[in-house]
Amino acid sequence: MCGVVGYVGKNNAIPILINGLSKLEYRGYDSAGVAVFDCGKIKICKTKGRIQNLQDKLFVNPLKGKIGIGHTRWATHGIPSYRNAHPQFSDDSKIAVVHNGIIENYMAIKEELEQKGYNFISETDTESVAHLIDYYYKSGMDILDAVFKTVERIEGSYALGIICRDFPNQLIAARKDSPLVIGIGKEENFIASDMPAILNYTRDVYLIDDNEVALLTADEIKIFDQNKNEIKKEVFKVDWDIEAAEKSGYDHFMLKEIFEQPKVVKENLSRRFKEDDSGVQLDTIKLDKKELLDIGQIYIVACGTAYYAGLVGKYLIERVARIPVNSELASEFRYKQPLIDEKTLVIVVSQSGETADTLAAMRLAKANGARVLGVVNAVGSSIAREADDVLYTLAGPEIAVASTKAFSAQVTAMFLLTLHIAMELDKISHDEFLTIKNEMENLPSLVNNILTKAPVIKRFMQKYINSKNVFYIGRGLDYIVSMEGSLKLKEIAYLHSEPYAAGELKHGPIALIEESTLVIGVVTQEELFEKTVSNIREVKARGAKVLAIAMKGNREIEKYADDVFYIPRTHWMLAPLLANIPQQLFAYYVALGLGNDVDKPRNLAKSVTVE
Ligand code: M6R
Fold first, then answer.
1. C-alpha–C-alpha distance, residues 206 and 223, integer Å
2. Active site (annotated) includes residue 39
3. How do residues 180-218 score in pLDDT, each as one tens digit?
């Protein structure tokens, strides 16, 4: 989604804004712009397309200033264009605004302001904010009051960066339902919609909460609550290495993140088994037998890849810990008036901790009295802060739009949760626990083993890159893995692909199978092997090519598939994590082979902060 950056200090704002925006590129965008206070005027440079285009423009017409705001826009209201790019100006260029989010009542505000003589140039919702601040300011309010009055009027979500021509030394920021942080520097301060934008300059930040407004100068940061009372906030220290947000020699963030998975899984397991081997220790989360027996129902709620990780959780908690779990897409959850009460545990899964639908689902659950456990990657994110308990997934910053290491971390969290609940409720024996624990501790080296075989996957890519349609099929846990594999291929390779529960093929989709179809058959679950093999034979008989992902040692599959990728042997419940790695690599190489921008796929944003 959009990225917001702002700077006030003693240095030239332009390179800092451009650097910040380039660190936010991963969020997805289609135009970019900056505004600085330069020689008594606010000057804007903006353009459709990449930040490089913006830099080219600035090279020809350089701007300079010690205060500025910058933006990468992911179009919602109006096409990607110069006019619609941010910053957006008020009528006489007195006020410039950058905005992440959606102003839901902008049409009503626009009509009202047009009647007062305001002239709208863009199709954006954001322009109404610039004019509204201008209107209140010119009607006699001081600039901060004008901003407060404006945020009181607007409905929807926003992270705003605002500068005003009459105040060449101050930057104003405001937030509701859209992430915003303030970076604390020495004789300089920053705003950003995400940490990577300011990590080159500071690790000390204030996390801005909903309805707060901040006033920044080079030497001072004042933060106000919605009643305009100044508030004191704790400084949050960002503990990532700067390299965590860099490519470190890899061609793409996605590839780097795929190769980080052994480390990420290891990190997630470290200190999460009790020292006396009696069970799992989920950080500070209690969820003991008494609490678990008190829980009437469990929901797991998430979007996209995180939803699939949640499905693994549902499958395992039901099968191993023997309690029913509802799994829901966060984007649907609210609309079905879910039956939630104080006896409900809602587990929300999110890499960013800012996904609008997941956040809204969580808030609905909390409002109905449910206890919320966040399984979250981004430390300090909205979900992490608002959930009752948080199990961090410790994957470090995930920059590529296609989620890879975050999925492995989330699935590892689901393994841990399953084991914890099963042990607390005496659903598995101590011996079974130890067997699974030992297998889990092997996972980092097994993931590593798969990664050494990346060249094999690259060869499969060369063979299958011209497939017209790709079906991913599997049963049970393999079906969930298929869903994630198919999503990855769609989002970065732009290839039409569908995941199917293998047994469902005969109920319709098999009609689509023809010679140009590739079927990826996931067959890691021994007890379902024969059944899925029958489905593989059915698609083979209709001319499809089959690439199978199977557990090492299972040579029988070679009789039916054109190619097989073997994952190392592991406990059945851990197989989804391993089986997904070749799928990630396959999607990566196909996308690369097709010449796509792997890290920034078209139309997508890393963190979906609008509904
Ligand atoms: O940040 P979240 O985990 O809440 O994001 C959820 C989805 O938007 C995300 O997993 C998305 O599906 C990814 N692009 C998939 O690769």
1. 9
2. no
3. 999 999 999 999 998 889 999 999 999 999 999 999 999
Cis link prior to 262 (omega < 30° from 0)?
no
Summarised one tens digit per residue, pLDDT across range 316-334 is: 999 999 999 999 999 999 8
Task: Output the six-digit token pair for 440.
Answer: 């889990």
Pocket-testing residue among 301, 354, 362, 608, ligand 1, by greatest number of atoms within 8 A of Cβ:
608
3-239 fold: Glutamine Phosphoribosylpyrophosphate, subunit 1, domain 1 (3.60.20)
Q: Where are the beta strands (DSSP E) in 314-439?
A: 325-329, 344-350, 371-376, 389-392
Domain pair 245-441 / 454-593, same fold: yes
391: its two tokens: 């199990």
What is the CATH code of the structural domain delimited by 245-441?
A: 3.40.50.10490
Structure tokens at 402: 């296609």
d(CA 551, CA 603): 36
CATH fold of 454-593 reads Rossmann fold (3.40.50)
* Dist CA 72 CA 68 (whole Å): 14
The predicted pLDDT at position 243 comes to 66
The pLDDT score that the predictor gives to residue 107 is 94
The catalytic position among 2, 45, 164, 303 is 2
Domain locations in the chain as residue ranges: 3-239, 245-441, 454-593
469-474: strand order across its sheet: 496-501, 469-474, 517-523, 545-551, 563-567
Ligand 1: residue whose CA is nearest its atom 14: 402
CA dihedral 539, 498, 532, 503 (to 10 degrees): -90
Average per-residue pLDDT for the chain = 94
- Within 101-142, where are the H helices? 106-115, 126-138
| 559 counts as catalytic | no
pLDDT in tens, 326-375: 999 999 998 989 999 999 999 999 999 999 999 999 999 999 999 999 99
**Cβ(483)–Cβ(303) below 8 Å:** no
CA dist 156 → 126, 238, 284, 376, 396 (Å): 11, 29, 34, 24, 30
